[in-house]
Amino acid sequence: MKSILGIVAVLAVSAAAAVAQQSVDEEIAERIAPAGETCMKGEECAAAVAAAPEGASAGGRSGGDIYNASCQTCHAAGVAGAPKLGDAAAWAPRIAKGMDTLYTNAINGINAMPPKGLCMDCNDGEIKAAVDYMVDNSK
After folding, report:
1. pLDDT tens-digit profile of 78-129?
2. What is the rounded CA–CA span in Å between residue 49 and residue 33?
3. Which of 83, 65, 86, 62 is nearest to 74 (CA)?
């Protein structure tokens, strides 16, 4: 009788350990799962994706919102030569090149600044709004 109870206890502990391990495995798989999927033009999944119109702000984020979320990391402290917000002398030569140049540089990157300042969830309209915000506050 004792040996049967011992076997049942071992089986119960083994089952609990297996369930716990499965839970851990699921948590690990969730943590290392890709953040998203790539959908190329012409694939079936691409038909379901509606592109945001140029100049539109996804989620209603303003230039100030984008600046505070992404741009201020470099532009508040002047990291790697980034012109500081409010520094009219640093911004003047850039503004003189025209807004289209500023937009292009912000979207595509320039010098130490990576494309979109690494705001990969920003659309071009939001980047332009952030540039407008920085220029308006740096004249």
Report:
1. 898 999 999 999 999 999 999 999 999 999 999 989 999 888 899 999 999 9
2. 21
3. 83
Is the entire prediction scored with pTM above 0.85?
Answer: no
- Residues in the chain, how many? 139
Separation between Cα atoms, residue 62 and residue 133, nearest integer Å: 9
Long-range contacts of 44-50 (CB under 8 A, 24+ apart): none
Judged by average pLDDT, the poorest of 5-14, 63-72, 126-135 is 5-14
Contacts of 62 (CB under 8 A, 6+ apart): 129, 133
What does the alpha-carbon distance between residue 61 and residue 121 come to, in Å, rounded to a whole number? 11
